[in-house]
Amino acid sequence: MKKVLSTVLVFTLVVLQVFSFASCKASEKEKHSAHYFDYFDTATTIIGYTQTEEEFNEICNEITSLLNEYHRLFTIYNRYDNLNNLVTINDLVDGKHQVVKVDSRIIEMLLFAKDMYKKTDGKVNVAMGSVLSIWHIYRNEGKDNPEKAQLPPVKKLEEASKHTDIDDLIIDEKNSTVYLADPAMLLDVGAVAKGYAVEKVCQYLEEKGVSDFLLNVGGNIRSIGYAGAEDSPWKVGIENPDTENEEKPYIEFLKIAGESVVTSGSYQRFYVVNGENYHHIIDPKTLMPGTNYKSVSVITNDSGLGDAFSTALFLMSYEEGKKLVENTENIEAMWVMPDGEQIYSSGFNGYT
Questions:
Q1: What average pLDDT does the segment 32-45 reach?
Q2: Which of helix, strand or coil describes residue 94?
Q3: ∠ at Cα 166 (130, 71), nearest 5°?
Q4: What is the pLDDT of residue 28?
Q5: What distance in Å separates the CA atoms of residue 115 and residue 191, rounded to the nearest whole number?
Q6: What's the pTM value of the predicted model, to 2 decimals?
Q7: DSSP label at 15?
Q8: From residue 281, how far is each of 36, 48, 187, 190, 246 by CA, in Å?
Q9: Tens digit of pLDDT for each residue in 88-112?
Q10: Where do runs of H (alpha helix) occur along the chain?
């Protein structure tokens, strides 16, 4: 969840550009689209096939209302009147965190985050806020004043890393409360919250019988049904991490119907120090940006899982990541190596 500097910047940060194609049967429905900049500090695009524009607008209103609710609950930057959110959980009172009663959706998201911590061997850790907040400050300062850009001091990062034990995140499901036992600990749910929210919104729509819709929230894509007809899957392009290659803006095109596609990459959010790019995906072990790949893309039927796994795979060795993917149901991945080579999981080509 990041600050949007401008409309142009937002679109450069979107990982995947969405395309759609449909057979002649799609003419029975009209294609509509809408764009927003109000949720999770990024760009949101909604595409849908409906009988009328009024129907499309009604569904969009439901989608944006839900996205707004999740954004307000999961943000670590903004406070809202009469609402306990992650900012409230991170707050200190007399030098200590408080037991905070929260909406059940926060409880469910944090439980999901703890599960992702276990499944990714700690690569996805929402308790790393103390470390990530330091990088956030230095990255923003480096962008605002490029000539003065600096790396965070190693000792400062190491000291912060002492306060990232996820077991200090105490969740009481019965009473719907959250408590951070370590006063120096902070939550940062950037690796899970957006994808989790998108998945919950899409599940709600599916339960209501909505179909033929696609959401793209900051590059986190989730499709519901087809692109207007059952024989017309959605087509999404995976952006080339070599952003200077104008002749090849996309390196793969995927066909999906009900799945989610998420990409994590070193080219998305970064700043430059002494001619080197330092991006936002921080390895919990090295406390530095991961360097194994240019990008990792994940296809799965759960957008929250896709969000978490794309981050985790980006920080794992290829051997470790491949093993995780092959041992997890309903997930495929593509790794783009530093030299540009593309490596695929066993079932990835089934979507091309």
A1: 96
A2: coil
A3: 65
A4: 80
A5: 13
A6: 0.91
A7: S
A8: 25, 32, 15, 10, 25
A9: 999 999 999 999 999 999 999 999 9
A10: 7-13, 53-74, 86-90, 104-119, 129-144, 154-161, 193-207, 303-315, 318-326
